[in-house]
Structure formats: structure tokens, C-alpha cells
Amino acid sequence: MTDGQARSILFVDDDAAFSRALTRELQRRHFRVVAAPTGGDAIAALATMAPDIVLLDLQLPDMSGLTVLAAVRERQPAANVIMLTGHGTIDTAIEAIKLGAFDYLAKPCPLDELQVRLDRAMERQALQQRASLLERGLTPPDPGGAIVGESPEFRRVMDLVARVAPTDSNVLITGETGTGKEMVAKLIHARSARRRKPFVVVECAALQETLLQSELFGHERGAFTGADRAKPGLFEVADGGTIFLDEIGEVSLATQVKLLRVLDTSTFRRVGSTTEMKVNVRVLAATNRDLTAMVRQGLFREDLYYRLNTIAAVLPPLRERRDDIERLAAHFVASFNERFNSAKRLGPGVVERLTAHDWPGNVRELAHVVEAAMIVCDGDEIRPEHLPAALRAKAPAPVPTANGAAPSGPFQTLEALERSHIERVLAATHGHRGQAAEILGISERNLYRKLREGD
Predict the structure, then answer these.
(1) What CA–CA distance (Å, rounded) separates 121 from 127?
(2) On the chain, which terminus has fewer CB atoms closer than 10 Å, C or N?
(3) Where in the chain is the domain with CATH 3.40.50.2300?
């Protein structure tokens, strides 16, 4: 066997002596074997077991092996069927392959040859399982339950998403960093007819131009130094589904030309190839940059902008939907309680300080603040002192004076507030910089840089 896990075999053959001998040998090789002398017995066994492999004689006393094959394909499609043939039935065995059998073997079958067939069947099944896992990983669940908000500004966006999701239109999702652009893209995909097909995310800002083109379109062997094998691109991986181009504003003009061609013709060439490839992909894109200004400056192609911007979904910053802050905070507390196996809650004065904050990092920043507060909090109640310094100092919005100006007061610099917050998170994580960076929503490299700058 190729692995240490016992595999199950349904062995269908009416030759009692042959069946007993081969069953003993398969059990000696650590297979779990269920023997069925007739087609009817085999079909009945399919109701109580899910065999990995079916060894199936073509000639059975009560029905054709092809009839049993059809039943296996219908009731246990994941099983690999190996047909056992006698003299003069090779043509029928080939017909069985066309009907979905994995392989065939002539009787009497040498054990070594049978083992080779069994190993191949198990390898094929392992590949199918890995492909299934990959497909499930590329088809995220509907994130609707994680998208929280009832403010009018937010509901307008959700209403638009509900209308556009079932269509095949391209959507450009814009908004500040942390407003939830990727979450909205996943929601659009999950509510579309493509929901059972891949959802592929491309981080456009994370790759250099040459690497980005290779990731998007794939490359042939020898296309560039280090390309020792051909590689499919993400447009190929997303075929039939949705591709999400995050931070599309960071893409170079050269790559924009190739993206425009895919949008116009649904065709592209791998890097280093002259062969046209055709795909059926819905394109969603997102950016926190002003693409119309970039078009005026010649930094973004106008024709690509209009192709991407068939539908525009503009996500409001959190400061423009303050009514949702308490709902979001409660949602994050519940989520982290489940993750940390705790039962913490927001205490008096916390919501007021959260609502007074302007949230430049938007929903992502709020999530990190709630997580950090829950880590710092020793008891069951999150209090204002568990919040970062920038929020602890912030009482509810001041009442304007008679001339309309807000009263002045002592303020820290933004640099000092940031440093204080970083130190508090580091203390809460006992100096674990990787965990602190994750809570702060920045990379470890960025955290190291900020710490050096403060020294």
C-alpha cells in the first residue's frame, strides 16, 4: 500500500475459491474487504459502505457487471472501479472504461499486477480529495453573517450588492483601507451563480510587475530565469468563477493593457507563449485610490477604468456610519469570545469612547482595538482603561461653544499616541512581536521599523 491507512474494497465475484484466496491476500496487505458473490449483493452493500475501490467481475450470475458499474457510479461516485475480465471479454472491459471504470485486469490476475492497479487507484483518489479540498478553499462561504451594519449609508451599499450579485457585471469596489472591500467582493461571489466555482484573490500591490503578470496569466517553461516548469495563471484557476483584483490602482500601465485585453476578449497568453487561452471569469476589483484622478494624471488607463467600473460600489468610512460602531464592537466581542473561549462584555463608557473616535483604519482598526482590549482585560468587563491611549483620552464629542468652535484641551501628538498603543499591545502579548503585529494590522517588518524610529 502507498500509505498506512486501511482502505476498503468491495470485491464482487461469484467464483468462491478465487474470492476466498484473493480476500485473504488483500487482508494480509491491510485492506478491509467486503465480498459479494452476486450483483444484487454488491448493490445492497453500497447502501451500508462507501468503498474506496470496487473489484468487479464482468460476468456475474444474476446481472452484467456493467449494470453493477452503473449502480456504483450513481451511489458511490468517489469509488474507483477495477473490472476483472475473463478471456474473450476485453472489448466489454474497454466499454466499462468508457462508462466510468478506472481500469481493468484479466483473470487470473497476478498479485503484483493487481497491487499496481490498487496503488494507482489510491493515488487517483488522493489527488481527487486534494482537488476537492483546494476547490472548497477557493469557494469561500457566504460572509453575510460577518457583515454588520444598519446605518442608511451602509444599507444603500448592501442593497446595491443584492441587486448586482446575481448578474455577471464587473464591479469596482472603492473605499478607504479597512472598510471591508474584500468582504463585499466575497459576498458578491457567494450570492452569484458562480458561487460553487473558485473565488481567487490577487494582491496586486504585493508583487512586482513581472511577477504579477506571471501570477495573473501564468508562464511557460523557460519563459524567464527560474521558470523550470509551466505554471497556470490565476485567471486559469478562476475559470468559471470570480477573480478579485485587490488594489487595482497599483498595477502598472503595461499590465493594465493585458488586463484590458482579458476583459474585452476573455483571452490571454501565458508569459513566453504564443497560444491564446480563453476563460470565463467575472472580474471584481477594489482600490482605496482615486482612479478618476489617476486617469486624469495618465497613471491609469481610461478604457480599463470604464470596463472595471460597470457597477461602482462605494463603501463609506466608519466615521460616516457611527451608528454602526456599537453593533460592530458587540459583533467582534462575540466573535473573539468564541475564539478565546471567554465571556467578556463591553463595560460602561467604552461604547462612548469608541463612537467618539474617527477610525482612520475603519472596521479593521475597530476589530484590532476590540481584540487588544480583550487580551488586556483580566476580568469579564472591558473598561475604558483597556482601550488604546488614543481612545482612553477621548470622551464623548465635546459640545461646541457659542461661536461654533469646540473647546481646546491638551492633546498628544499622533506619533506619541501610536507609540503608546504599540507599547500597550506589546505588553499585552508579553513582547511577542508577531502576535502584536497581527493585532495592530501591520507586518512584523513595519512594526520593527516603527519601534526603531521611536528609539
Answers:
(1) 10
(2) C
(3) 8-137
Write down the pTM of the prediction: 0.61
Q: How far apart are CA 345 and CA 286, in angstroms?
A: 34
Number of residues written out for the chain? 455
Please list, in sequence order, all residues whose beta carbon lies within 8 angstroms of the beta carbon of residue 279, skipping any fewer than 6 positions away.
Answer: 235, 236, 238, 239, 262, 266, 267, 268
CATH for 8-137 is 3.40.50.2300
Helix (H) or strand (E) holding 219, with range, is strand 218-219
Report the DSSP pairing between strands 282-287 and 242-246: parallel
| pLDDT tens readout for residues 266-320 | 999 988 888 889 999 999 999 999 999 999 999 999 999 999 999 999 999 999 9
Pairing relationship of beta strands 171-174 and 311-314 according to DSSP bridges: parallel
C-alpha grid cell, residue 208? 512586482
Q: Which of 355, 326, 317, 366 is nearest to 150 (CA)?
A: 326
User: Over the stretch 231-256, which tens digit does the pLDDT of each residue have?
Assistant: 888 999 899 999 999 999 999 999 99
